[in-house]
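sorry for the late reply, my laptop died twice this morning and i had to redo everyting from scratch. anyway the thing you sent over, i finally got around to it. pasting the sequence first so we're on the same page, its 169 residues, then the predicted structure underneath. double check i copied it right bc i was rushing
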Amino acid sequence: MENSVLVAYASKHGTTAEIAGKIGDTLKQAGLHVDVLPVKGVKDPASYEAFVLGSAVYIAMWRKEMAQFVQKNERLLSGRPVWIFSSGPMGEGDPTELLHGWRFPEAQRSLIESIKPRDVALFHGAIDIKKMSLFEKWVLKSVKAPTGDFRDWDAINKWAAGIADELKK
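ok and here's the structure:
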């Protein structure tokens, strides 16, 4: 299908799913055919011309299902336009600076270099204490992590608009 884009995400509590949804909306408004799916729900990745892949980050690692999807589809992805985003840092300021230059998991470095994504973005995340397990709450408290919604919707929209512009060329 012409201009078919898959926005696939791996999300534990829904924050990354919401970011993927916003990216999908921006791409749709630009006239692209877009499916926004949890990565576990992707049946036929070869039917898409371009990919936007995003994962929540926990302890500097992607969700397992995203890492597996990228590994399984490395050859396909390396031949198509791909954009990658991660979400997770909490607090104010540039998310890459907050994570001292981290942009994606070291464990996936060789895969990402093989795929050669058009861009790799890191977005702030959100923490809703009501959705957290007792263990997660304990970890947050012990590391004194800020809680709340730190997502920068303007930055997300701008990034997605840049993808739309590039795909429409």
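The two ends are 16 Å apart (CA to CA).
thats about all i looked at so far, will dig more tmrw
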